[in-house]
Amino acid sequence: MSGASGQQEYDVIVVGSGAGGGMSALILSIAGLKVLMLEAGRHYDPVTETPMFNLPKEAPLRGASTPDKPFGFYDATIDGGWQVPGEPYTQASREPQQRFDWWRARMLGGRTNHWGRISLRNGEYDFKPYSRDGLGFDWPINYADLAPYYDKTEMLIGVYGETGHGLENTPDSPEGILQPAPKPRAYELLAKKSCDELNIPVIPAHLAILSQRQDHTRLPAKLFPNSELGQKVVANSMQSRAACFWATPCGRGCSIKANFQSTTVLIPPALATGNLTIITDAMVREVTLNKAGKADGVIYIDKNSRQEVKVKGRAVVVAASAAETARIFLNSRSPLFPDGIANSSGLVGKYLMDTVGAGVGGQIPALENLPPMNEDGSSGMHLYQPWWLYKQQKAGKLNFARGYHIEMSGGRGMPGAGAFGGLQSFTEGAYGADFKQACRRYYGTFVHFDGRGEMIPNENSYAELDPTVVDQWGIPVLKFHWQWSEHEINQAAHMQKTFADIITGMGGKVTSNIETDGRKAIMNGGAIIHEVGGTIMGADRKKSVLNQHCQAWDVPNLFVADGAPFASNADKNPTLTILALAWRTSDYIVEQFKQRNI
Amino acid sequence: MADDNYNSSNTNLKRRDALKLLATAAVSIPVLGMAGHAAAVTAKTKGAELIYRPTDPDMLKPVVPWSMTLTLTQAELDDLAVLADIIIPADAQSPSAASLGAQHFINEWVSAPYPQQKADLVLVRGGLVWLNGEAKKRFGKAFAKLSTAEQRQICDDICYEPKAAANLKHGARFFAKVRDLTATAFYTTEPGMADIGYIGNKPMANFDGPSDEVLRKLKLKS
Question: ipTM of the assembly?
Answer without folding.
Answer: 0.94
